[in-house]
Structure formats: C-alpha cells, structure tokens
Fold this protein.
Amino acid sequence: MLHVVIAEAEVELIPKSIARHPVIRREARRRRRRAEQMLLDSSLHHTAMRSLSEASRRGRPDIAHYTLLTLLESPLNRLGRLRCYLHTRNDEVVFIHPETRLPRACRRFRGLMEKLFAERRIESDNAVLLELKQMSLPQLVEQLSPERVVLLSEAERRLEVWELARELALAESACVIIGGFPHGDYRGDYPFAERVSIFPEPLAAWSVASEVVSHYRRCIAAGEAKP
Ligand SMILES: C[S@@+](CC[C@H](N)C(=O)[O-])C[C@H]1O[C@@H](n2cnc3c(N)ncnc32)[C@H](O)[C@@H]1O
C-alpha cells in the first residue's frame, strides 16, 4: 500500500485577525457566511492577507485541490493501492476515503472544505468520505506505521522517480510526503523521514504526485512489488 500525505497544505479558515478587513466582509456578506467560516484564498484575499505572517505562501487550497484530484483519479487509486491524506499548516489531517469524488470546480472544492471544517466529517451512503482530525504530521505517520517514509523536497539527495518507486513498492507499506505549499521549505523538521529529490528543478506538487503514483503502479504491473 502507498500512503501519500500532502503535508503542511496551505488550507485554513480565515484567521480572526483579518476577519474585519473590507475585502473579507464584502465576501462574507455576499455569501451570507461568517468570515471565520470561509476558506482563506490568496487569489481572492491577497490585499487582506498582507498583515499575516508568511502571507506569501498561505491561502492556497488550489494546490491541495489539484494534487488530490491527481491522486484520487489515478489508476493506482482505482486499483485500491493508494491512500491519501491532507495535513494542514494548523496540524489538522483530512482522512480521505479512496472512493471520494472531489468536485473539479475550485469554488465547489472551497465549499466542500468549508463544510468539512464546520462539521468535521462528510458522509455519503453511510460511508465517511472525508474526516478532519486534529493531528500533527508525526502523529499521522506513527498511526500509519509504514515500513518506509520518504519526504519529497527539491534540494535533497537525488533519486530517479522510477528508482524511488521501485524501493517503495518493495516495502510492505510506504508513505510519501509531498509539500502542499507554493514555495519555501517545510516549516517542521521531520527526522523520521528520508529526504529525496526526484528532479533537479522545483515541480508543482500535483506533478510530483502524478510521477510517484504512475511509477509505483508500473512497479506493481511489472511484479516488482509486495502483493
Ligand atoms: C512547489 S513545491 C515547494 C517547493 C519547495 N521549495 C521544495 O523544497 O520542494 C511543492 C512540493 O512538491 C514537491 N517537489 C517539488 N519539486 C520537487 C523535486 N524536484 N523533487 C522532489 N519533490 C519536489 C515537494 O514535496 C514540495 O514540497
């Protein structure tokens, strides 16, 4: 089994400190919501975000959205060999049922995340599709207890993605961590993970996710994997 964690994803509700900014209040009025129930989105709220720390990397639900679509719609997921998780900058983890069909429109994805933050779980036909828990990345990895943990980052020991996939497929279960932020390094230090780069240049998180799951599936097809 391959576990993929989108880590430190820039997905959060609008912080209280900017809830009364005119841009936010206008949107809250239009959507008939409380400001603190809406998702922070830099494409809509950049002027209001100027006073936030680390403003240049925050409010990026689009990265989590594209990466989750890539993972959930991948052939590896259809084969039942993938589990995905979304870990946020505020140490929440979204547990995602592999059969979850995410909305493709960004606006609808935002609405779904807002509902999840409000209700903590999204169910359909008696199955829990999404569940939000307060949990740090080390706690999540400990719970998954994979044989191998690899954290992907651009400036690390280079390993071709097909070599990495082969090593991961040979493990009973493996966990790959991909940053869900637009630039910069991970904010946390995760000594339990091997750090690997798969390309000499920075790539988008969804492109990295696509490379990993497709090469991992190729290893399974070639019989280079633990059943
Ligand atoms: C836009 S990047 C963030 C860039 C960041 N400077 C970094 O160190 O990777 C989002 C995530 O994609 C993955 N990523 C991007 N380029 C990569 C590369 N060349 N090798 C491995 N992972 C990469 C990493 O997990 C990264 O956190």
User: Anything to note?
Assistant: The two ends are 9 Å apart (CA to CA). The domain at 1-11+57-227 is CATH 3.40.1280.10 (Alpha/beta knot). The CA atoms of residues 63 and 180 lie 6 Å apart. Residues 152-155, 178-179, 181-185, 197-199, 201-205, 208 surround S-adenosylmethionine (CB under 6 Å).
